[in-house]
Amino acid sequence: MPRDSRQKRDLHGLNEDGMILCNPRDKEAAHRAEMEGIATDDRAAVTCRKCEALLYKRDKTRNEIQDYGRSKPFT
Questions:
Q1: Does the residue 41 lie in any domain?
Q2: Residue 45: inside a domain, yes or no?
Q3: Tens digit of pLDDT for each residue in 45-67?
């Protein structure tokens, strides 16, 4: 299989299981991404649009869950 010759590749995010966020069921793709250096745990380094959207959605959900336990003042 020929190697990809593109100069600039998207950097994909990884989930807690080490799978790519935008393609979580493909173990081979996750392995390839890690071997080729296009996968990262660093949220700020992710450039893949699908991965960024999924990270945003995941963080928003986590924040809502954390905020649910806090008491809010009545207005």
A1: yes
A2: yes
A3: 999 999 999 999 999 998 888 87
